[in-house]
Each structure stands twice: as structure tokens, then as C-alpha cells.
Amino acid sequence: MNAEISVVILCYRAGERIRDFVDRTIKLIDRSVPSWEMVLVGNYLENSGDVTPEIVKDIALKNNNIKIVAMPKEGMMGWDARSGLEKAQAKYICLIDGDEQMPPEDILRVYKKIKEEDLDLVKTYRVVRHDGVARRFISSSYNLIFNLFFPGTYVRDVNSKPKIFKKESYDKMRLGSDDWFLDAEIIIQAKKLKFRIGEVPTEFYKNPYRKSFVKFDTIFEFIKNLVITRFKGAS
Length: 235
Fold this sequence. Notes:
Oligomer: single chain
Number of domains: 1
Largest sheet: 7 strands, mixed
Number of strands: 7
């Protein structure tokens, strides 16, 4: 029998810090969800010295509810997310970053909303941010450009996580993005499939351990992907 919820955690270059995030998440879901599984995604760049793969393997050895994905990277965030989502088998599938910027308490908030309102997809939107002016500018630009290309999606914050899906709804999507465009691809396909979508507000924290992987040039990558996707949709 499948679990009630799969929590897919993106752990790229988190190192030892991922242990605390996983422990916090387990304590939360263990007392609030009847059954669960967790997928830790520790994909890595070869010869990078990243210790995360070994750490997630060690965590999984101590808990039978935890699966891991730890492969040499063939893409960036989107590829990592898809590799973890493919292993998730529960009734609901939740995707979250493990860098501590998104509080694990939000997993329960999106889970509660998707169940109570019988939705296909629920995500957060960031109303308070502590991650700096540059990152806020990039995020605002993302959302403005996205809504210009794809009006009528009615989501406030395309890239915000956690995102939670019904498994049956997730299985209808055909995600293919290997990079940061995955979040936008999820919303585009959800609209096309007429998913019932909900959002809950959240607070987004600064990562004190490293700089963001999102850079200014990702805006141009994002625009390129939007143009390609929009053109395909019109053809």
C-alpha cells in the first residue's frame, strides 16, 4: 500500500546541514500524516568534492521510509527535481528545496489545503523575503515576464516551493525541463490540463551558508525557454 505523502527534498550541495532539515521534516510529518516516504535528491557534479551523496545515503540507511537519488548530474535543478519526483509513489507528492530558505512547516500547510479543497496542485507564494534585493528583483522579473507570456495562470509566485501534487495529477504531466524553468513548466502544464490550483502565503529566508545558485543570466535563460514554450503551444 502506497504512503499518504512523498516528500522530495532537493539536497544539492547541502552537505551536513541537510541532516537537520531532514530531522525537522520527519518530526513534523510523523505526527501529522498517517504514512509517509521521503526522497532525498543528492545528485552531484563529478570531481566537485560534494559530500552530499554520502550524507543522504547515510541518512537513508537509518530510516526505511527514506529513498535516495544520488547520480552524476546531467542537468541542473529541473533534472534533479524530475529524478526525485519519478521515485515518489505516495498519494500526494511534495517537492521542496532543502537549503532552509523554505520552512518545512509549509509542507503541512500545502498538504492540508490540497486535501481539504480537493485540489490538483498547491504551492506557496512568498509575501515576506529575507534573501536580498538582487534575488527579489530576479524573482519579480520572472513573474512579470511569465504572466506576459502566459496570462490567465493566476499564480502569484511561479518558482515558490513547496509544491504538492496529487499523484494522479502529477502523472498527467510530461515534464522535460532540466534547469530552473521546471517551475514554470509545471504551472504551464497545470493550466493546460485544467488543474485546480491553490496557493498559501509563506516567508522566505536567507541562506546564510552560500550564495544563491540563481544568477542574473538565468533571466535570459528563462525568457528563451518561455519563447520556445509559447511558440510550441501556438504551433
